[in-house]
Amino acid sequence: MFRHVKQLQYTVRVAGPNPGLANLLLEQFGGPQGELAAACRYFTQGLSDDDPSRKDLLMDIATEELSHLEIIGSLVGMLNKGAKGDLAEGTEKEGDLYRSLSGKGNDSHLTSLLYGGGPALTNSAGAPWTAAYIDTIGEVTADLRSNIAAEARAKIIYERLINLTDDPGVKDALGFLMTREVAHQISFEKALYSIRNNFPPGKLPPIEKYASTYYNMSEGGEVRGSWNSDENFNYVADPGPAVDGGDGSASVTLPAEQQRNLDSMIARTASDPAVNPVTGTDIGAVPPIENDSAPKKRSRAPAKKK
């Protein structure tokens, strides 16, 4: 059950209208790292979690993320408040109104026209919000790690938004939201490490001979550290194919009838490597411009029909 409290979780004070900044703030309203995505992510996890303490944590934070969505939406609305009236009443000349909305190269005129200056469930580029942003997989240790990363990404977006404005009230509200991302990250990390068997995710153990092996798969500039040290890994400096000891090929065992059909298809569609056929590209090709310093090349003329 939800009950809405009309007062915001944090007071929003905006010094003046700024449609361009409002458009950028939509990134945290309807973007992939935004508050709606976070709320839906944690709700879907909390609804299915059978641990009562963790369920409580997830539902608390999911609900708080909706409160943050309300703060961001209010900021967008306040920043667009002047443009909303101007656009609705048409009191400015067309060119002046357009310039006031478009600012310095932003797309706020689009969101103002489509959504009347209100917060839209889009990101800052106008792409609609999608449930594809929700990466819940239903395995608690994997989901908690995803939540930690999501909070870190959201914190960075807020930090970048703070750097884009000199409005003290907007900076203040964004600073609060940024800080809450840090608090949530701490809670999720505590919840993850309170699970005794938290790694690897899932139930099945990894295959021992591959679990602690590091393959050096890119040549040149090798750097050794704890992530590939001999202390932690069996470091393979020059890995070859088929680390399982096989021949590295792919094979399947088919029923006899399917194997006969496959053999027939392979024979029918086989290429002849000994043939050099004349094709349309040979007939219609324009000879390349010859470089006087380069050795002359003879172009192959199409074969004459007998």
**Share in helix:** 40-55%
DSSP summary: helix tally: 12
* Strand tally: 2
N-to-C CA distance = 87 Å
CATH superfamily of the domain at 19-193: Ferritin, core subunit, four-helix bundle
Low-confidence stretches are none
Judged by helices, strands and strand pairing, the structural class is: mainly alpha
Q: In one word, what is the shape?
A: extended
Radius of gyration: 30 Å
CATH architecture of the domain at 19-193, by name, is Up-down Bundle
On the 0-100 scale, what is the average pLDDT? 88
Strand content: under 5%
Main sheet strand line-up: 1-2
Structural notes for this entry:
The longest helix has 28 residues. It is built from 12 helices and 2 strands. It has 306 residues and is mainly α. A two-stranded parallel sheet has the order 1-2. The mean pLDDT is 88. The chain starts with 18 loop residues before the first helix and ends in a 22-residue tail after the last helix. The protein has a domain of 175 residues: Up-down Bundle (Ferritin). It is 49% helix and 2% strand.
Topology readout:
Elements: H1 19-25, H2 27-30, H3 35-48, H4 52-79, H5 81-89, H6 94-102, H7 108-115, H8 140-162, H9 168-193, H10 208-211, E1 213-215, E2 234-236, H11 256-268, H12 280-284
Parallel strand pairs: 1-2
Helix pairs in contact: 1-4, 1-7, 3-4, 3-8, 4-9, 8-9
Can you tag this structure with a few keywords?
306 residues, mainly alpha, Ferritin, two-stranded parallel ribbon, 2% strand
